[in-house]
Amino acid sequence: MVQHDFKVTTMWSGGRNQVGKVNGDILSEHISIPSSLGGIGKGTNPDEMLVAAASSCYIISLAATLERAKFENVTIELESIGTATFINGKFAMKSINHYPKIQIDNKDFERLTKKLPKLLQIADQNCMISNSVRNNVKINISPTITT
Fold first, then answer.
1. Residue 110, class by beta-carbon neighbours within 10 Å (0-12 exposed, 13-18 middle, 19+ buried)?
2. Which SUPFAM superfamilies does the entry link to (predicted)?
3. Fewer Cβ atoms within 10 Å of its own Cβ: the N or the C terminal residue of the chain?
């Protein structure tokens, strides 16, 4: 079994309407409760970081999957939307919807169109974040292909 540790440190002082800090090997960001949830909205927040983690993991996984399938000159733009719900006094992420826009050479358009459903599934199955939230958060993928 291969194991890798990802270390972050967080700091917070005061009550709910303060600003904290999260630091990792590269990441360094202020954190607070989003203004849409009654907080001060400075920096990022755990909800946005969860969606960002899912989005960045999926786009890297999709790029690798397309590369292994011998698709070249591919550009991917991914919009991801996380939908949280408030049920029984608790917030939880209900779903994350990925909207990949895949731009590819015209010569590969038909081949990619045929193979894309399977490739999207492979990318999702190889994404660590998708695997970590599966059975708790519904992941939906709605692609668009352009030349």
1. exposed
2. OsmC-like
3. N
Taking only the tens place, the pLDDT of each residue in 27-73 is 999 999 999 989 999 999 999 999 999 999 999 999 999 999 999 99
The dihedrals phi and psi of 115, each to the nearest 5 degrees, come to -90, -15
Residue among 84, 123, 83 at smallest CA distance from 100: 123
Bridge partner list, 140: 97
Dihedral of alpha carbons 22, 81, 119, 64, sign: negative
Do residues 31 and 50 lie in contact, with contact meaning Cβ atoms separated by under 8 Å?
no
What global pTM score does this model have?
Answer: 0.94
User: Which residue, among 53, 78, 63, has the nearest Cα to 129 in the 3D structure?
Assistant: 53
What distance in Å separates the CA atoms of residue 123 and residue 61, rounded to the nearest whole number?
5
* b/e burial code for range 56-92 (CB count within 10 A of at least 16 → b): ebbbbbbbebbeebebeebebebebebeeeeeeeeee
Question: Whose CA is closest to 103, among 51, 68, 143?
Answer: 143
